[in-house]
What we know:
By secondary structure, the protein is an alpha/beta fold. Helices cover 36% and strands 18% of the residues. The chain has two domains: 14-77, Arc Repressor Mutant, subunit A, CATH 1.10.10; 91-185, Rossmann fold. The relative contact order is 0.15.
Amino acid sequence: MIPLHLDPLSGQPLYLQIVEQLEEAVRTGALKDGDAVWSARRIASHHHVAYQTAERALAELARRGVVRRSVATGTVVCGGAARRRVVEHRVVALISCWEVWGSGPTYTMAELAMHQAAAHALTERFWGLLSVSLGSGDVPHGFSTGRLAGWCRRSRFDGAIIFGNMPERGLQWLSGQGYPLVVADSDPEGPY
């Protein structure tokens, strides 16, 4: 088991801190397929958190497919860092990272056709769309991976189409969570 660094003053629930740190350990290879993960009781005892907090974290990791829980084998890591999300909700997220004087970009018809073709493969079996504007990484306080993660926790979707200049850390976080991504455009062209 990897060491966990829990901060009760961070404003982020402790169970999510556990979830994100264990997901990061799987993503970076610190935990590999088949590695044992401590039980909820042992996590709670060692890190001085409530049993329910540790249990909720392990349940969320199991729901996300990061760990497999069994009475016979305990909790073990399953899958690798490159695992793909299972389509559950049939919803794709449209994530806008534009920050151009408070408005979105202007596209030519050719650009729109290209974006539509790129997104078609991702969305052909889906029936719903979510849309969010997170701001650009080009302006202070415009983009935050924490805000992206918070929105992803509240929203249920299976893949994302990114419009605008999402910082690399945001793309890596989404990709690490197993979301299929289409980056439709990173530099706006045309009048603003």
